[in-house]
Amino acid sequence: MAARVVLVAGFTHHDVADELWRASPESVLVRHDLSGLADGVVRRWVDGRLTVLELAHGCVSCTLRLDLVPLLEELDGRVVVHLDPVLEPEAVCFALGETDVEVEAVVTVVDTATWLDDATGGDSLADRGMRAAEGDERTVAQVVVGQAEFADALVLTGSCDPVLAAVLDRLTPHAPRRTADGLDVTALLAAIPAESRRGEIDDGFAPLLHGQPSLEPAHGVAVVHFTERRPFHPMRLHDSIDVLLDGVVRVRGRAWVASQPDAALWLESAGAGLRVGNLGPWLAATDDWSEADADRRAAASLLWDPYYGDRNQEFVVITRSADAARIEAALRSALVTDEELALITELDFADPFAEWHEEMEL
Fold this sequence. Notes:
It is a single chain. This protein is α/β, with parallel strands linked by helices and 362 residues long. The chain is 28% helix and 24% strand. Strands 4-3-2-5-1-6-7-8 form an eight-stranded mixed beta sheet, with helices on both faces. The protein has a five-stranded antiparallel beta sheet with strand order 9-13-10-11-12, sandwiched between helices. It is globular. The relative contact order is 0.12.
């Protein structure tokens, strides 16, 4: 029988994993400490029994591939995994994707006193002395936003002020929220909606308004949903990126740039941290749709353009203090003009994204 895993993430000290373990007497508790990972050392506890692991190459992916995934494949029944603070549950679920391990739920603990500042700040993990390994350039914002966004349920360390509540309503609208004080972990898991992702990884072409968040502003927090059926000018899009990083909690979007008409690019930011990736070709640029799942094919058919096919722009931006109209205007001004569109096959566009996505492919 394959393991049923509850992943517990959080950028703060907490005992939620222990409470989940105690609430299920037959469960197993797994905990990792990656503070020595840069030196190739990982400490792992299974039901309190410590094992010190030495890895030839100290990195997060090595820890998942060489230790956590094989361990979970050996176990059965419910396993509660208390993730190290710098681990993002999405990466763990991706690593488990080729196994029989079932992700029962992802629970993230949110420190209500620090989360908003962390989510919109510019500190790197290295600035906090928490870098998992050499070359780990992630920001604190990328970690805390990723942990909360991927959660099926949230546990708050204290009271939730209206601004934080408004952000979480839009970042992870489907996830039930409970406070850590007096937490009933059994009731928390039972409150997770049936449609929650439970570790499911999408290919970047899934709907970006996951969970149908409110598009109405509240307490200064807003959602910008930008869509358009013409390409971006690559340099103007590059120049608009600063607008997407200031006072913004989260940006997720698919971009179609004039210099790379066949490639769907992915832009994702949290706080001041930015990632650019290549999702692969638009369906209009390939004759073989067999690799695309049914949902993507159905969505492409609904918006298919006789000339552009499924190429389009779609961005979702969650703001904390930024001007939503300014973000909308910046993205719109980055689109090619009518004159550029008429000459698009003849123009030679400078493309700053060509090297970025090769280095930072998702």
